[in-house]
Amino acid sequence: MARRPMGGEEGGEDAVEEKEGEILTPEEQQAAAEKKKKRNQKKRARAKKKKAAAKALVWEKAATLSCGRESRLVSKGNLGKGELLWGTNEYYLSVLYTSHCGTHCGACYAEMGASKRWSCPVCKSFSLCEKCDKAEVKEWHEHECGLFCGVPVGMRQGDTDYLRFVCRFFAICCHGAPPASLPGSRLLSPTPELDEVFKLRGRGKSRTDIRFLDCLSTNEELQSEDFRSWCSNFAQLFERHVKFPAGYTVSDLADLLMRIRTNGLGFPCSDKHGTLGWSLDLYASFLDHSCSPNCEVTMDDGGKLLVRTLTDIQDGSPLLISYVDVESRTPKERRDHLFELYRFRCSCERCESGK
Ligand SMILES: [Zn+2]
Ligand SMILES: [Zn+2]
Ligand SMILES: [Zn+2]
């Protein structure tokens, strides 16, 4: 009778394959047990993912955008700890940091390693993994790639985060939504709530869908003189080389750059590498900051942005995330960092109590 590897079970998906009458050496037994362990791990991960997806609430059911000068997201109903409020890549505009462009997939943001299949020979800033290497993704990339390569070489050297961000946004405005496998397929979808915020911010009714990012604040008065002039120079230079979307002006672009800085989420992210890039999301960018947050933003394997509650949250309470790693900094360092990066002075409960 054949010996069974340690811990082997008969039948079912997890049974270790074994031929009738075959005797396994200890090495083979070990290898078979390893194989089984890996299979079980994968199975558990699949089940976990399925459960999370089933629990995913549509954002609108979990949160509402309070309209006003300081628009923010507040909970709709009582929320429990650990609830998944949002899990989609449809509403965000994001790019990888320049340093991750060659190592991470430009569509799903996974680390590629051996699964790297394609690297754009033209811009050399966009790669695709095995799963995302599809004709429609490459075709869509050509739009942003053309804009990117249209600017002077000097603008494309070094850190190209802002440049690629703007190229992606312009490509969406001019050529429509990217394929579903790329983030941002519903970025320009107007919603009544956003329209309301838009009107309250004194911009009247949006002329075109591309104005929805204008709902986010620029914090212009708090930006440094240097950064303001950098934004303005960037926008002017860009206009000399690239065709703007209809109705979009140089000053609109300078404002967009300030919005990116003020509202950009450090996202996508990964457990291993931390923040991989940044994004603006029509909803998640309205999550205010607190040094003792009640929500967190993470990412799943498919590059989707997930917002989860960290505590129980009462109906009507603001949904808050932390824009900084709170524990690794002193209170002063934390506040200085927040001002430097996002241009606001934190006055959350924790900061007020000096902790
Ligand atoms: Zn991918
Ligand atoms: Zn390219
Ligand atoms: Zn604070």
From TrEMBL:
Task: Tell me the keywords, alphabetical order.
Answer: Metal-binding, Zinc, Zinc-finger
Q: Does this UniProt record's set of keywords contain Zinc?
A: yes
Task: Work out whether the entry's keyword set contains Zinc.
Answer: yes
Residue ranges with Basic residues bias:
35-47
Q: Where is the composition biased (Acidic residues)?
A: 10-20
Q: InterPro entries per the record?
A: H3K4_H4K5_MeTrfase, SET_dom, SET_dom_sf, Znf_ZZ
Query: Which intervals of the chain are annotated as region Disordered?
Result: 1-47
Q: Its domain of life? A: Eukaryota
Q: CDD domains of this UniProt entry?
A: SET_SMYD
Query: The SET domain covers which part of the protein?
Result: 120-324
Q: Name one GO molecular function term.
A: zinc ion binding
Q: Provide the protein name.
A: SET domain-containing protein
